[in-house]
Design goal:
Length: 109
Amino acid sequence: MTKDDYVNLLKKLNITVNEGIQNDKNQNNYPRIVFWDIAWTPQTASNEVYNTQVTYQTSFFSRNSRDKKLLELKKILNENKIFPTIYHEYIQESNYFHSYFSIDLLENL
């Protein structure tokens, strides 16, 4: 899957999606997604880099632990043969749930 494919997949949810940093005006939108690259792994052959595996963290913020949009995201990922482990934490001081996972995409950097 390419990054463009992934972004299009996230946009199918019809919720706020930000790459890199969260836009301040979206800070109180629930549910919402923020994703960013956390690792670049060169793919090599014959000592030449031919592509890069880019690992993205995707963070999903919601008011419910099993938000219907999170379940929809999981379903869409699974339909695309992507089966990430999704972790969850409750942020008590702000009263929301943070669910997150990583995904590896190929990019020609």
